[in-house]
Amino acid sequence: MRANNCKVGLVCAHSFARPGGVQRHVVALYREFRKRGIEAKIIAPGKAKPDGVPEEHVISLGVSLYVPGNGSKTNMNFSFRPRAVARALKKEQFDVLHFHNIEIGLLTFQALYASDALNILTFHGALDGSFIMKWCPWVKQIAYFVYGGKINGAIGVSEPAFEAIKNFQGPKIIIPNGIDLARFSPNVEPISRHKDEKFTILFVGRLEKRKGVMHLLYAYEDLVSRRNDLRLIIIGDGEMRAKAELFVHKKSLPEVYFEGVVGEDELPSYYRSASVLCAPSIYGESFGLILLEAMACGVPPVGFANAGYQCVMRRTDPSQSFDPGKLLVLPKDSSALAGKIEELLENPDLYEEARAWGLARCKEFSWDMIADQVLDFYADALRRKKNTA
Q1: Residue 388: pLDDT over 90
Q2: Which of 202, 245, 356, 378 is the most buried (most CB within 10 A)?
């Protein structure tokens, strides 16, 4: 399976019209496979194409809709042309179909059942952030019954994500998200317009209730009531943006910049411009990719202690003196969040310790190592499939 004659179809359940961690993971894995000479293509609903991927390497099938729920949005993909899905897969003759989330919808269902390839599922979600799983737990049992017989191997990106697949009877493993250490680096040039003596707090994410942007604004209000050396940059967009902007206006909060969605090429420079990344997600995080990206740029993160972020912000070596968990506070505690940001900015020794730990930690997630693990898992799942045939 490590040979370059393997052909892989990376099936993304989410449209590329709406940025997200799953889409970025799929594109990064595509690029890593292509670098190794592995023929890889991306299959996704909708007409939007991922940046930097040749059009001929993207297969658009069906449409994608997002349904509000539980402080976020649940993706539903549809295709009412099952024959078109089957024809596309027959034409490509993939050796592996790697599904990244199988959401509620017809497209992924049709692709899975039309597939004669090795079918691998990576689950990216956290059950505490799933509206469907929370209120309709029987859906998971139906999914196991419907999909289980066609899936040859399952991957969870973290312990919280693995919970969703722990009862899967086939080969299963935890393989985390990866990071491109060439793109995200302390050597990246910062955004020129934010070069001054002020401390910059950065938020990166969708502006929705679950991501906690309002809790960050409450913390920022607390901080600027006693400091005049701060700036807040908010990257992302969403339904909470109007409320957040109104709050900033009513409270006359200084130096708050809503930058909207920025391009993938610009993102590392924004990280590099920051003094601190603030990640105030309340729940529903299965991992913490933005934490890794910030740390790779030499920027310490502060945030709420949800299950996903705790997976990243932990000691992997008992001999380490620095405890990264102390950079996280209880969810929804805006006062503690403000205190943690200020503690980091006021203590140069602590800041440098956090920065050094982060630079070392992110190296454990380099994409070349993660891709190796994925390819090894393909090979293991294929062996098991042949042995049970």
Answers
A1: no
A2: 202
